[in-house]
Design a protein that fits this description.
The chain is mainly α. The chain has one domain (about 1-165). Helices cover about 85% and strands about 0% of the residues. The protein contains six helices and no strands. It has helices at about 5-40, 45-60, 65-75, 80-105, 110-130, 135-165. The two termini are about 20 Å apart.
């Protein structure tokens, strides 16, 4: 497939891949920071933060859907939810960062590993979407599908490059 593309198309795919890696790297770093932050967040602290964020809105409209949803979330925040959140964010973020570093170092074996991990992330995001119907899960899934395509094309480019050297 990559053999049929002209040099401008190949360069555009490479640039798109690099930009996608940058966004995934930032996302991975934010997930690790979020996981570390979540270690120090208990229900009392979370409720205090939610009250600070929502008090202005609730004073204007006591039936505000978002503010009330945040209050319900804060009251149901448990140690199990915290532990899962820490584990999920830390593992997801660390996996992303390691794979991105390997891809930036042009390790050929990392391309299929990256694609496989993205497929697993997509499967989990679809599962989460069935539970929460969050539009964010759809956006993340679309971005991950685009990254799979770019990663595959970049992998083909790298294999072609190494085979001609």
């Amino acid at each position: 497939m990559i053999e049929k593309m002209n040099s401008k198309q190949i360069k555009a795919i490479h640039v798109g891949f690099q930009i996608g890696l940058l966004f995934k790297g930032i996302d991975g770093l934010l997930e690790v920071i979020g996981g570390i932050s979540l270690i120090f967040l208990n229900q009392a602290r979370l409720n205090k933060i939610i009250q600070l964020v929502t008090q202005g809105e609730l004073s204007e409209d006591p039936r505000d859907v978002v503010a009330n949803a945040l209050l319900r979330f804060g009251s149901s925040f448990s140690l199990d939810a915290q532990s899962f959140g820490v584990f999920y964010l830390m593992s997801h973020g660390i996996i992303k960062i390691i794979i991105i570093l390997l891809l930036w170092r042009k390790k050929l074996w990392a391309y299929p590993v990256s694609i496989a991990s993205l497929v697993l992330f997509i499967a989990y995001q679809i599962y989460r979407y069935t539970i929460s119907a969050s539009p964010l899960m759809i956006l993340l899934t679309i971005f991950d599908i685009a990254m799979i395509i770019l990663t595959y094309l970049e992998y083909q480019r790298m294999k072609l490059k190494f085979s001609t050297q």
